[in-house]
Amino acid sequence: MNLGLGIGPTFIGPAFLWSPSRLRIGTRDVRDLTVRPNRLFSDTAGTTLISGPGAEVAAMRDSRGVLVATQATSAARLKYAVQPAVGVRNTLRENMAIAATGWSIQNASGGAGALTVVDDAAAIAALSLPPGVRAYRVDNSTGTGPSRFAMGAGNGTFDSAVNFTLSAFIRSESGSLTDYQIRTGFGGYPSLNVTTEFVRYSRTSTQRTSGTSNAADTLWVEVPAGAVALIVLPQHELGLTLTAPQAVRTSGFDVSEAGVRAVHRLAYDGVDDFMDLATAWTSGAAYTLAAAHNLNDSAAFNSTAGTIFGNTGSTSGRFFRSTRSLSNIETDTGNRRAADTASVSGRVVDLARMIAGGEAFYRNGVLSTSFAENDGDPEPVFNTLGRSGTGYATGSFFSGLMVSDGDTPLTVAERQSIQRYMEYQRGTVA
Question: How much helix, strand and coil, in percent to the nearest 5, is found in the chain?
Answer without folding.
Answer: 10, 40, 50
